[in-house]
Amino acid sequence: MADSLARVEADSSLRAGVEGALRLYYARFSDRDWRAFRRSFWPGATITTRWIPPGERGQRVWTQTVEEFVRRAPEGPGRMAVFSERMLHAHVTGYGDLASAWVVYEGRWGTSRDSVRTVRGIDAFTVYRDDGVWRITSLAFTPEQPGRTLEVPQPRTRRTATTSRSAAVR
Prior knowledge:
- By secondary structure, this protein is of the alpha+beta class.
- The chain has one domain: Nuclear Transport Factor 2, Chain: A (Roll), CATH 3.10.450.
- The protein is built from five helices and six strands.
- The protein has helices spanning 2-9, 12-31, 34-39, 66-72, 161-169, and strands spanning 41-51, 60-65, 82-95, 98-110, 117-130, 133-143.
- It has a six-stranded mixed β-sheet with strand order 2-1-6-5-4-3.
- The longest helix is centred in the N-terminal third of the chain and has 20 residues, at 12-31.
- The radius of gyration is 19 Å and the shape is globular.
């Protein structure tokens, strides 16, 4: 079983397809193009987070459909003068037409241009491919936690033959 999972994680074409779909999702979300945003999701898809609903005192886990999220968008991203999110790093695992991606994202939000703040968090996606198109079936997200900074891995550098020989000579 472990060997099968290692091969699943190594599927670079799957990873490229999922990352492309997620980049499109972030572009649509940042543009606040709600019609296009909906197209990033399969019908019946859900979005889950922890938040304090209006009129309540404490946070709770809240799962909603994409349609509910879009209806409430004017209360969240829609009220911001500045709003954008982008994918900083994705860890994609999949098999066939099913994949998951844990994404470190960075957002820039502000109710006015002089109140913009930068935030980071984790988006956990489950995506499914049909007829060559990857779309989201579920998204759960959480902001960066105090004292647990989200680090973005640095790209691996390729070792050249010269580097390898130099190391061998020493």
